[in-house]
Amino acid sequence: MTAKSVQSSARRALLQLSLPPAAIIWIAVGLLLLLARSVSASFWELSHLLNVARQASALGILAIGQTYVLITGGIDLSNAMVVTLVNVVAATLLRGSDETLGGTLLICLGIGLLTGLANGLLITRLKVPPLVVTLGMFSILRGAAYVYTDGAPRGDISPALEFVGTGFVGPIPTAVIFWVVLTALAAVALQKTVFGRQLYAVGGNEKASRLSGVPADRVIVLAYVVSGLMAAIAGLILSGYAGTGTLTLGDGRNLDSIAAAVVGGTSLSGGSGSVIGSAGGALFLALLFSFLRFIGLPYTIQLMVQGLILAVAVYLHVRSQRAS
Amino acid sequence: MSEPFLEMRNIVKTYPGVRAVDNVTLSVGRGEIRALVGENGAGKSTLIKILAGAEQADAGEIWLGGQRVRYDSPVEALRLGIGAIYQEFNLVPQLNVAQNIMLGQVPKKWGGQVDTEAMHRRAREMLARLNVSLDTRRLVADLDVAQQQVVEIAKGLARDLRVFIMDEPTAALSAVETEHLLDVVRALKQQGVAIIYITHRMREIFQIADSVTILKDGRHVETSPARSLTSDAIVAKMIGRDLTDYYPPRGTPASEVLFSVRDLNVAGKLFDINLDVRRGEILGIAGLEGQGQRELARIMFGALPYDRGTFLRNGQPIRLSSPSDAIRAGIAYVSDDRKRDGLVLIRSANENIALPSLSRRTNGKILIDEKTERSFVHHLIDRLAIKVTHRSQKVNNLSGGNQQKIVVGKWLGMEPQILIVSEPTRGIDVGSKSEIHHILRDLANQGVGIVMVSSELPEILGMSDRILVMAEGRIVAEMDGATATEEQLMAAAAIHSVSDTSVPVTS
Q: From the CA of A204, how many Å to the nearest CA of chain B?
């Protein structure tokens, strides 16, 4: 083989080595860490990084469900208010003790499940666009949270939930363990089960999927149910961290979860995406916020940076789609 | 024949892999009605799209009234007085009848406001010329196909065209409406409009055309006065082509009936359809485009609702209300639109091929067994000679022929007993076409019953063991595939197409 042919085949190999979007975000996470270290060594401390991961975990869990929904070509704006409703309900029912923990958990997961079921059924049966359905559900849940608390949330979270929100197992924050396990389960379900394959197919071409015998409606409903359940779990973890009931716990988390998924390479037009990428996206956003706070940028500027990052991520994604 | 008013000189139009219009010259005089005939794919549509500005010719000139004209959009063509009405309507469903008829030339009041009253008045005048009473305030979305066709024609009338192109304007009309339309065409002729009239209905040609231009395979065959031609002569010149394509030898179908349709009816679309599909046969369903074949294929797969009818699988009645029902009964369907109905383009070859048989292969287990799936997919890729760099390659990067093989492949994985294919080789290259034909014949030889809907006569004649001809939603003839000729097929498909009166061709 001549030098030239080696060179050209090497170039071909490089060209063919197109990184999946999920890998790109993890590289971005690594670069951000290196940047942070060059600014300050204390940012690099393990305890600080684990704290950032803990902050990312609720967002990461919301992003799992959001990713499922985005893969179908839909969107879930209601997950933020599932978080809030779960929070005020849990605080009210628990009143600071673990006595009613089992029942409370069931009720909170039930809220998530029923919200997802309602979203999914309205979207598939009545053919109302997902944006409208989940925005409406957002309002309904917000109203429900106000009615339930009379505008003044009472009660406290129990010790067990506080452990989930703020505790550690060894050096690892409990919330991070929940996040990692749920991400692993969701990734396996997406890549290795019939449901996962059908989810991608329905999002890529619903009509062709139906004509291939895929139960498209059931698949879509299930995606919203997963999103509702993830929102309920995230709501419980955040409740444990907050310690009390508050009517603003979920605010902004719907858009954050979309941002995490999209930064992680999930397409808004459906048919592609991964929860590993979304996990990277959630970690990236949490690191970025922590870093921006660390160097003393005000919250308002942080928001603008987040918007910019999101726009750049979508642009890069669209461009790579066009290139392939 | 009068002085040439419109001239198309040496028009050439090439699409990737096919020369759609090959050096065609055509001239039409004022007040002349020119019938333009040819098989599907003969180049008629491309030619008139070029004339109407919807497509640009690669070479050639257009002359109007002795002057060379150049334009590259339908709007500019309209400004020159050249307009077309197409089979596919260019109507805006959300607007009402008057708004559609007057689209692009809305009458204005002082200050730029729409003169609604004048708009409706003028729209009513156009409809009156067609002898049609239709409320101009109705939304086009609420009209049936025949009414939409009338609106499309009225829209053309409202534009005071000098060259009026009509692409099968009567395809959706009843006998009475057709007569009115022909009267209007004659009136336009009196006003000196040059008319190009595309139709598959021989009867209409002899009713109104002054002259006939015959196209075949993108080439001009002949232009003659209508008086000097007979319908037999026109048909012979339209098709007169050797069956040069190589088709696999026919098999020996069994007499065992796998699947039957009984008394299937869909209001306005399909009437009293009865058919049997036998083990190991290729049953060709022929006809001009849009005679209900496509709907029939989809209904047999449970993908379209129907009004009345029963389906028998091995003699037992079955329900076909969803594709899943059909798949469970061993029926598979390859759509005529693979990109819309057949493939998830942004996913891999592997995922597409595996999709319909996923649940069956996992057999209740939670996880997909990657190893068996890999060998399953590789086996199909080899069997159909699908050219992919890797099974994980995205389907939208593949050629049309390879995409079509993937659609066929994903169904082969289900081991169907009945395979319904609709236009199986549309838009794919000659090599892949022949490969698909061989795959279909191999399947039939293995005992699969194949229903093949095709509007390509050579394909129907080359592949079918038995042929059913459809016209206007009915099965109008059955022929033996080995002995049928293009002439017989064309005659069967065309004669019956004058509404339901079955008037024989005047020759």
A: 5
